[in-house]
């Protein structure tokens, strides 16, 4: 099972690779990704869906609005494992 630190590290890698003009590498785990981190809403969805695939999770759409920080993102991924599909 993945840890929160592993999920956050992978999220940072994805943002650095896929959103290099927008991503702030100095983003702290508790800072808002869309404001302080420079990630727009489309970039956020891209990161979230890649993490869901890689960590075999499915964050329900109604939870997306609650995910503001890397800490929130890791918690959402870990709390929502994909159920035997």
Describe this structure in words.
With about 80 residues, the protein is mostly helical. Helices cover about 50% and strands about 0% of the residues. It is globular. The model has no long low-confidence stretch (mean pLDDT about 90).
Beta-strand proportion: under 5%
Q: What is the number of beta strands? A: 0
Give the oligomeric state.
single chain
Helical amount among residues, as a percent range? 40-55%
Please tell me what the overall shape is.
globular
Structural class: mainly alpha
Low-confidence stretches: none
Write down the secondary-structure element order: HHHH
Q: Counting H and I runs of at least 4 residues, what is the number of helices?
A: 4
> Mind summarizing the main beta sheet?
none
Mean pLDDT figure: 91
Backbone CA Rg? 12 Å
Cα-to-Cα separation, first versus last residue = 18 Å
Task: Reconstruct the topology from this structure.
Layout lengths: L3 H15 L22 H14 L6 H4 L5 H10 L6
Relevant terms:
single chain, 85 residues, mainly alpha, 4 helices, 51% helix
Task: Provide a compact summary of the structure.
It contains 4 helices and no strands. With 85 residues, it is mostly helical. Helix 1 crosses helix 2 and helix 1 packs across helix 4.
């Amino acid at each position: 099972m993945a840890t929160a630190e592993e999920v956050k590290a992978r999220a940072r890698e994805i943002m650095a690779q896929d959103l290099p003009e927008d991503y702030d590498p100095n983003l702290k785990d508790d800072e808002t990704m869309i404001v302080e981190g420079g990630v727009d809403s489309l970039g956020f969805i891209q990161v979230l869906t890649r993490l869901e695939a890689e960590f075999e999770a499915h964050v329900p759409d109604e939870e997306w609005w609650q995910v503001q920080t890397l800490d929130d993102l890791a918690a959402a991924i870990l709390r929502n494992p994909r159920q035997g599909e």
